Amino acid sequence: MRLILTFAILTLLSACVTAPMSRSGPNGAVSSEQAIANFTEVLARVEPVAESVCRTETPHQNCDFVIVVERDTRAGINAFQTVDPQGRPYLIFTVGLLSAARNTDELAFVMGHEAAHHIAEHIAAQRASARLGAITFGEMAQARGESAEAVRRAAELGGFYGSRRFSQEYELEADAIGTLIAWRAGYDPLRGAAFFTRLPDPGERFLGTHPPNSARTSVVINTLAGLQG
User: Fold this and answer.
1) What is the pLDDT of residues 79-90, one digit of tens each?
2) How far is 100 from 195, CA to CA, in rounded Å?
3) Which partner for 99 in 29, 67, 77, 218 could form a disulfide, CB atoms 3.0-4.6 Å apart?
4) Model-level pTM?
């Protein structure tokens, strides 16, 4: 495990990005010093659990997580999961997210959620789905005798559709695995999932990247009930 405190350029495809969130109200963003202290505590407890779950569930993967804090404030309130060309997983958190998290439970849940994307191999699945969508739509256009430009546009549309097709399922699966990780690390996943309920609710959108907040909360509640039962 490594913690990197500066990560200026994000060049690899990411699986998850959180949406902008309001910081207003008495229980808003914490100080930068407290945010780093909270994050350091959560990192020490959550990363070993995430690594253990990864090695148990997907031993064929590289489970040596690199934890990164992006200090550029222009990055907003975001978290990403990606892999380098050698397959090593990166979990990237902006300072905006660290300050927006109101407690260590929220940080633990977000960290578990991002690690879960790697454990569930969502980037590879998303790329495969996008590739299949591009091929399918392109071949359909070609079979209809469309022009080369029309085939290209159809392939692009198919790739977009394929990349989005299972996005909401991936998010819910990451919420379930993230619940397990946070719980095993000694945090309250339900309290932690409150972080996502403060995001603008995406609702029921066709090909939306994230499911409704109510669906995410239900997954956390049901997963936690199974763990406690």
Assistant:
1) 989 999 888 999
2) 9
3) 29
4) 0.77
